[in-house]
């Protein structure tokens, strides 16, 4: 029993490390959010779906970074699938493991420090909606 718990514990640690590594770059976060908004069987166009609307980037540079860095990393951990022509991404078998991080943040938007909300359209909107709901009650 102890050996099994140890092995399970190591696996859980590895998976959390993979999830947190996946969300350390803005294009990956934006892509995960875009895929969360899409139907589970749909793909999203790239590089458009990996752009923060508040901080637009050069699409050619972003496309290159997606192709050579971000997409392979997410695909290696099975968070996404992707195709090159056209450049699109879809949900991978482990997508929910990264999506849940953003779902938890959105659910708790009113508790997140303002310094982490202001400038993030999604969290700003969620915070506003939750505050409006609590005032209406």
UniProtKB/TrEMBL annotation:
Q: Which organism was this protein described from?
A: Haloarcula amylolytica JCM 13557
Protein name (database record): Transcriptional regulator
Organism classification = Archaea, Methanobacteriati, Methanobacteriota, Stenosarchaea group, Halobacteria
Output the superkingdom of the source species.
Archaea
């Amino acid at each position: 029993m102890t050996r099994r718990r140890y092995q399970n514990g190591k696996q859980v640690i590895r998976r959390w490390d993979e999830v947190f590594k996946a969300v350390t770059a803005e294009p990956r976060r934006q892509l995960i959010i875009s895929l969360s908004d899409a139907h589970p069987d749909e793909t999203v166009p790239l590089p458009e779906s990996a752009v923060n609307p508040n901080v637009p980037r050069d699409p050619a540079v972003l496309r290159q970074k997606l192709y050579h860095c971000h997409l392979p990393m997410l695909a290696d951990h099975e968070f996404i699938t992707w195709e090159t022509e056209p450049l699109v991404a879809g949900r991978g078998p482990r997508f929910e493991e990264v999506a849940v991080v953003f779902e938890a943040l959105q659910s708790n938007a009113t508790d997140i420090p303002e310094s982490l909300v202001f400038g993030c359209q999604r969290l700003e909107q969620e915070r506003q909606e939750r505050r409006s709901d609590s005032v209406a009650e």
